Amino acid sequence: MKIELKPIQPKRISDQVFDQLRALIFRGDYQPGQKIMTERELAEALNVSRNSVREAINKLVTLRFLEQRQGQGTFVRPLDEAVQIPLATVMETQDASLIDLLEMRMGIECTAASLAAQRSGTAELQAIETAIADMEQDIGSGGLGTEGDLAFHMAIAAATKNPLQIYIMKNVSDFLHVGIRENLLHLYQDPKNIEMIMKQHKAICEAIRRHDPDAAYDAMRRHIAFVIDFFSRRQ
Fold first, then answer.
1. What does pTM read for this prediction?
2. Is the dihedral of CA 87, 88, 90, 94 positive or negative?
């Protein structure tokens, strides 16, 4: 049996800078609306050229994680600017329902979980686990854990290391955060639902930790199917 191997391609410096900055945003080290360090400061801190930093920042701007304000600097994009969420416009113009959105998530996020199981490293796993811990802490304090839930799904998208997967999931996540927040509250107001969602999140995380793409795919499928079933019964 002939095994085909592909030559290892060295990762560009700008891509490594991009990965670090994106991780800071996903982990919440850089908050929405916060100004990031200047190109010069980042170049010195990372020991890279300003050109590499500039390329990484331009990529983050293109993917809508950052915005550049003339004469002010570069800022993390707020999540609550609905006018900047293309998915909101599409759903309005196409008369799409919440179930339509959840069905789309089924395809995107099951694939994301599978890819995350194959590609995640220590940092990506830690971000997923932190999101679960934040959700548990919020619930324990009387909250609903919605912020941690969104962070969990974004952390999985980040673990795919696929920029298009991340971009699409960010738009979905932004819309979930803003456009249908009131609908999501109905799901989280039942303690039994929260308990089930926590179990599902942990099952997804465990499959990713084991680097089992099939189990991760199935765990995410069961999770989203549970959410779809909830809202289907409310219609």
1. 0.65
2. positive
